[in-house]
Amino acid sequence: MRVLGIETSCDETGVAIFDSEKGLLADALYSQVAMHSEYGGVVPELASRDHVRKLLPLIREVLAEAQLSLHDLDGVAFTAGPGLIGALMVGASTGRALAMGLGIPAIAVHHMEGHLLAPMLEENPPSFPFVALLVSGGHTQLVKVEGIGEYELLGESLDDAAGEAFDKAAKMLGLDYPGGPLIARLAEKGDRSRFRFPRPMTDRPGLEFSFSGLKTFTLNTANAHRDEQGQIDDQTMADIAAAFEDAVVDTLSIKCRRALQQTGLKQLIIAGGVSANRHLRLKLEAAVKKEGAELYYARAKFCTDNGAMIAYAGCQRLLAGQASDLTILAKPRWPM
Ligand code: KG4
Ligand code: ZN
């Protein structure tokens, strides 16, 4: 079965074709990051307009790359939520209309299910059941995964998501949006022992997270080191970035170990934009080893938003006989 996947939930237009026998045939991505960075965050109306501009050209591009025509497709998968309503509507209406015109099934995919299954696109994928840490700009969740669609929420953030915390801390340091990759790059030059930030909610049992306090800590530390012009020297910036990254990574590692112990499972997958973080991958690699478990993640370009994960997730659901009706689904809020 060959499935076209469409992702337009936020600021990346992602399109891909997944073949259940041959694997990923093509994928293309257009990032709007440069356009939004001028405003310090995603501007929903501009995002929707740019998806309209880019989606059909990208669909043509993946078809050409895979040397296929529209008539070779067996299904269309689109992200139906959660995300920005206007942005979602672009992918949902285009995907639904394409499927209708071609007389093939369409399937509405949950964005976080797409992220969760992205490590399945890699060479040695995990097998069910496993524990998943979903860490993106909007979500921080630990999930027990028994199979496609069989998800049990073990714990989540009570306030900011991990990626959101990275973005907010970056803003406080005067860095661009999205701040996660910029903090990570700065942190590489930082002295990780100069400042110690708290590891929120690790001293009590449970698998809940809280990251909003870390931004206050970041702001206070930054303010304490500003010169008369309000500037912070480069080394101090790097040291703060390193302390912040360490605090987030340590907190996530502690909770992941706890989730493995609690479930008795021996596989952990990490997915979502923050799973691209190299320090997180290294630290988690060591943490899961202590539990006698294995760590799995997708290549960096499939950690952040992309069409391949939606094509894959949609293909699995269509193979299981599921399909969405003619209602064009777009749900800005949608629990997985
Ligand atoms: O999954 P994603 O692309 O979009 C959402 O579904 O939210 O995640 C985006 C988030 C942003 O907050 C971004 O700052 C963060 O992932 N991110 C990172 C890194 N790359 C992306 N955070 C830390 N380190 C990174 N290398
Ligand atoms: Zn995402």
Automatic annotation (TrEMBL):
Keyword Transferase: yes
Chief location: cytoplasm
Keyword match Metal-binding: yes
One Pfam family here: TsaD
Binding annotation for substrate: 134-138, 167, 180, 277
GO biological process, one term: tRNA threonylcarbamoyladenosine modification
Entries under InterPro entries matching the protein: ATPase_NBD (IPR043129), Gcp-like_dom (IPR000905), KAE1/TsaD (IPR017861), Peptidase_M22_CS (IPR017860), TsaD (IPR022450)
Coiled-coil regions, chain positions: none
Gene Ontology CC: one annotated term: cytoplasm
EC number: 2.3.1.234
Reaction equations catalysed: L-threonylcarbamoyladenylate + adenosine(37) in tRNA = N(6)-L-threonylcarbamoyladenosine(37) in tRNA + AMP + H(+)
Binding site for Fe cation: 111, 115, 305
HAMAP family xref list: TsaD
NCBIfam families xref list: gcp_kae1 (TIGR00329), T6A_TsaD_YgjD (TIGR03723)
Free-text function comment from the UniProt entry: Required for the formation of a threonylcarbamoyl group on adenosine at position 37 (t(6)A37) in tRNAs that read codons beginning with adenine. Is involved in the transfer of the threonylcarbamoyl moiety of threonylcarbamoyl-AMP (TC-AMP) to the N6 group of A37, together with TsaE and TsaB. TsaD likely plays a direct catalytic role in this reaction.
Protein name: tRNA N6-adenosine threonylcarbamoyltransferase
UniProt lineage: Bacteria, Pseudomonadati, Pseudomonadota, Gammaproteobacteria, Oceanospirillales
Gene from which the chain derives: tsaD
